[in-house]
Amino acid sequence: MFSRREYLLMGVFVALAAFFFFRGCDKHIDSRVLNTSLPEEDSAKFIVNGDKLTVLTPGKEETIFLPDRPSSIEINKSGEINITAKQFGTELKPFLGLQMSNVFRLGAGIDAVYYKKWDLGVGVADRAGNYTPVVFTKISYLIWSNTQLGITYDSSTHVGLSLTVRL
Q1: What is the 3-state secondary structure (H, E, C) of 78-145?
Q2: Where are the domains positioned within the chain?
């Protein structure tokens, strides 16, 4: 018969095969959902893809960034579509991440102002094992999900880069 290790390897193989099979099915469905052609019998189509909303109406395609704030979609009786998604404003979103200026540091802070996918925040960073904290300001861009890539300027007058995750 099979050894315990062989059963484990077969289980892992079956799980991976199932994952890739279902992943392929999901990609096929996603491509149909993301299709930007509007069927003739439909008056509008809404496609939500992460933080992006695409509205398709006859003869018009509009893409709107959805911030991580409340947004609304209203369709009145005449079929007119009104979307309310504030594109700029203030916020209090904490973040954690790495900051590199003259040395690598671990940092934490709060984003205070946003414009679409851009954020302006302040934070504190320090090297592990050393007490050399710096205060920094950060301008960052949301590159994926809640991950930001930014430029920092710290209290040691160094310009640096940051890679942060919003909490």
Answers
A1: CCCEEEECCCEEEEEEEEEEEEECCCEEEEEEEEEEEECCEEEEEEEEECCCCCCCEEEEEEEEEEEC
A2: 4-84, 88-166
